[in-house]
Design a protein that fits this description.
- This is EamA family transporter.
- Keywords: Membrane, Transmembrane, Transmembrane helix.
- By secondary structure, the chain is mainly α.
- The chain contains 13 helices and no strands.
């Protein structure tokens, strides 16, 4: 395997083996958007039972425990591709910080406000990926992403009342997520989704275990260590299983399609979250939410239509 190439504004992304597969990438991203809300649902249910850092640690322990045996059976070795350990470690650390920050955010502020701030991530990703990865952005993709963001705001309708410094938590999540996706596009040239997520599980678990060991007596509630009841243990496993499954689809999507193309489709997560909210909690969307959902779905359909038209030439 080749040594790691530095990411830079003049570094065009090498294609993965077999090249990009845009229809598959779109389908995988839509699947991620359907699965991802379950991470937040289980994390919200665990609020008051399991502190954020401990919950994030459990998420990565489950991820590593599930995927390492699969990787060993498929490849009969656990070493990553040559020269990729630093990038694997960085991906895991970034997702560990992102997960902890968002869990802490939704426990300290309205989830609508947290989601509204976090969903600047697709816009940032669309803008930055052209510079860092050399991928084509184009005004249509940027417009679709912007329209999707506006639709998301209509759905969540954040109040932004009395946020203060806590608003930095979902912004930190968004920043870490963007860097995580950029590294995913790079590492996907040489590794498959299972390998990437197995190594990210190891890295994320080590980061969270170190943070918990050093700061559990600091007095910060997020870093407290508790012995949860059976329901808490079940929710820790559920968060890990949901995150592992959803992020396998996310990584597989970004391995197959450019980041600017997939970014608008991430807003479909808002749609699925609204559907699950109605199904589980009886939160029926009002007229403004339906309008926002229609805008988000429309921006996603526009992306799919544009790519199918481009594929036909």
């Amino acid at each position: 395997m080749p040594r790691v190439q530095p990411l830079g504004p003049h570094t065009a992304p090498a294609p993965r083996a077999g090249g990009d597969n845009i229809p598959a990438g779109i389908a995988l991203m839509i699947t991620f958007a359907v699965l991802a809300p379950w991470i937040d649902i289980f994390a919200k249910l665990a609020s008051g039972m399991v502190p954020p850092v401990q919950l994030t640690l459990a998420r990565f322990v489950v991820q590593a425990a599930v995927l390492l045996p699969v990787l060993a059976l498929r490849r009969r070795r656990l070493r990553p591709a040559r020269g990729l350990w630093p990038l694997h470690a960085a991906r895991g650390a970034l997702m560990a910080v992102a997960s902890t920050a968002f869990i802490a955010a939704v426990q300290a502020m309205p989830i609508a406000d947290a989601m509204a701030i976090f969903f600047v991530a697709p816009l940032l990703l669309t803008a930055i990926s052209g510079l860092v990865l050399g991928e084509e952005v184009g005004w249509r993709r940027l417009t679709a992403c912007t329209v999707g963001f506006l639709g998301a705001l209509l759905v969540v309708r954040p109040s932004f009342a009395e946020l203060g410094p806590v608003a930095l938590l979902p912004l930190l999540t968004a920043s870490c997520f963007v860097l995580y996706v950029l590294l995913t596009r790079r590492v996907a040239r040489d590794e498959g989704p299972v390998a990437m997520q197995a190594y990210a599980g190891i890295s994320g678990a080590l980061v969270m275990a170190l943070a918990l060991a050093l700061l559990h007596d600091s007095g910060w509630p997020a870093f407290a260590a508790v012995r949860p009841a059976l329901a808490g243990w079940a929710l820790m496993v559920a968060v890990g299983a949901a995150a592992t499954t959803a992020h396998l689809f996310l990584v597989a999507a970004y391995a197959r399609a450019p980041a600017p193309l997939l970014a608008p489709l991430q807003y479909l997560e808002i749609v699925s979250a609204t559907v699950f909210g109605y199904w589980l909690f009886g939160d029926f969307p009002d007229a403004l939410k339906w309008t926002g959902i229609a805008i988000i779905v429309g921006s996603g359909l526009f992306v799919i239509w544009r790519e199918r038209r481009a594929a036909r030439g």
